[in-house]
Structures are given as structure tokens and as C-alpha cells.
Amino acid sequence: MKNLILFPFLVACISSMPSIVAFGQDSHEVKVTEGTNMSVALSPDESTLAMALQGTIWILPRQGGKADAITDEMGDCHEPAWSPDGQQLVFHSYRDGNYHIYTINKDGSGLTQLTSGISDNREPHWSPDGSSVIFSSDRSGNYDIWKLDLNSRDLRQLTTDPANDSNPAFSSSGDKIAFVSQRENPGVYLLEEGKETLAIPTDLRVAAPSWSKDDNSLAYVAYTGRSMLFDDKNTSYIYMANLKEGTIEQLSADED
């Protein structure tokens, strides 16, 4: 799974997570109990959470407890995703003035920048075999899905539609990619052997598709409002789509 089902754990996990802020000669402890634009990813062995909060990537036990920052507070880091062996994380960061893709070891060492240039590169996801990373990028004029080979560093554009494509996620088997598109027929699309098909049609704003282990289902977030910023009735829900049966189930109630 990528980063959506675990949200109910977050408030409990961070409720005792203090930060020390220095002001001149004084320091003050700030206790964080909530966050905005948070994301979380479960490690492959299901023991550890990687969490993006306040622009920093944190590591903490799945059952909750002490959170350790593995990136600094200035990187504006988001959307962590684990490597298949559970030893590294990939994420996007604004540390050089554009969003680029980075990897880091789970202990905070080995920070490595994978993309560069003036384009924005976001929402990375690691392939199940560990050989590549997919992400969305506007380097071709609008947001498309791109794939980076981690050995050769070859970069390949996977989608070319003039509408924006985003939020890519490898299936557990690695032979399919789910992504969100704002095309004339919007929703969640599947990319398999070069062919793109609309798997979940919806007029709602969609984010964060996430595969089940058997590749039969996709979880995703959908927003009822058209604008995250200006619609006071905006609410998000988690849904689960059974791709084989063609059914969709709402998993969450009136929560963000």
C-alpha cells in the first residue's frame, strides 16, 4: 500500500511529539497534536511508519511512540514511499527552489537528489523490484507520469496526454501503474504494457491511489468540493474500488 489507509493512527502517533524552537537565548517546547497536508507510508515489514509532517520526514513505530526526524526542517519534504527492502525512502522536496525527487536511508543518512532542473517533480513511488522510481513531472509542459531507472539514471516519459496526470503507484506485482488524471474522462487510470485505461471514472477530485497486495483493489481519496482552499463544504473520503467486480465502497465517514 502507498499512503492512505493509515491516517487514523496519525494523531495518536504524534500527540507526544515535542519540538524545541529557539528564540535568542531562550528555548520553548511546542507539542504538535495535529497537522495539515500530512502523508504516511507503512514499511514493507509493516513495523514502521514514515510520515511527512511540517515539511519534515519522520520515522516512528507503527504502534505509535517516539518519532525521529530523518530530514531537516527546511526541506519542505512530502509524500514518502519505501524502497522494497525497507532500507530507504523516496520523497519530493523543495530544498533547491523546485520540487525534486530525493532518496534517503531510513536512519537519515545518504540524502541523494535524483532529479534536477526547473521543472516540478512530485509524488514518487518505488517499483517492487527496486530498480526504478515513478513520479509526476511538468517537465514536458503539463504534469505527466515519468519513470527513472535508478541504475542508468535514464528518464522515460510514460504518459503524454495534454491534461495533468499525477499520483502514480506501482501495483504489487509491478506490471501495472495506477495514476490520477484530469482528462476529459477524469478519474483513476491504469497503465499496463503501454496501454492506458480508465479504471475508476469520477468527477470528484481524486488523490493517492493505493494497491491491495493481490492487485485486485485500489484505495484512494476523493474530495467532494471543487477547491481545497475556497470550498467550506470540502470533505475527503477514502474509497476502495474492487477492480474485478467493478464495485466501490466508501471506507471513511465525515473526516478529512
Write up this protein.
By secondary structure, the protein is mostly beta strands. It has one helix and 22 strands. The protein has one helix at 10-14; strands spanning 17-23, 26-32, 39-42, 48-53, 56-61, 68-69, 77-82, 88-93, 100-105, 112-113, 121-126, 132-137, 144-149, 155-157, 165-170, 177-181, 187-192, 195-201, 205-211, 217-223, 236-242, 247-250. It has a four-stranded antiparallel sheet with strand order 3-4-5-6, with no helix packed on it. Strands 7-8-9-10 form a four-stranded antiparallel sheet, with no helix packed on it. The longest helix is centred in the first third of the chain and has 5 residues, at 10-14. It is globular, with a radius of gyration of 18 Å. Mean pLDDT is 89; it is low at 1-16.
Oligomer: single chain
The tally of beta strands, per DSSP, is 22
Sheet bearing the most strands, described?
4 strands, antiparallel
Helix fraction, binned, reads under 10%
| SSE succession | HEEEEEEEEEEEEEEEEEEEEEE
Terminal Cα span: 19 Å
Mean pLDDT: 89
Point out poorly predicted stretches: 1-16
Roughly how many Å is the radius of gyration?
Answer: 18 Å
Shape: globular
Question: What structural category do the secondary elements indicate?
Answer: mainly beta
Supply the number of helical segments: 1
* Beta-strand share of residues: over 45%
Walk across the major sheet and give the strand order. Answer: 3-4-5-6
Topology:
Blueprint lengths: L9 H5 L2 E7 L2 E7 L6 E4 L5 E6 L2 E6 L6 E2 L7 E6 L5 E6 L6 E6 L6 E2 L7 E6 L5 E6 L6 E6 L5 E3 L7 E6 L6 E5 L5 E6 L2 E7 L3 E7 L5 E7 L12 E7 L4 E4 L6
Antiparallel strand pairs: 1-2, 3-4, 4-5, 5-6, 7-8, 8-9, 9-10, 11-12, 12-13, 13-14, 15-16, 16-17, 17-18, 19-20, 20-21, 21-22
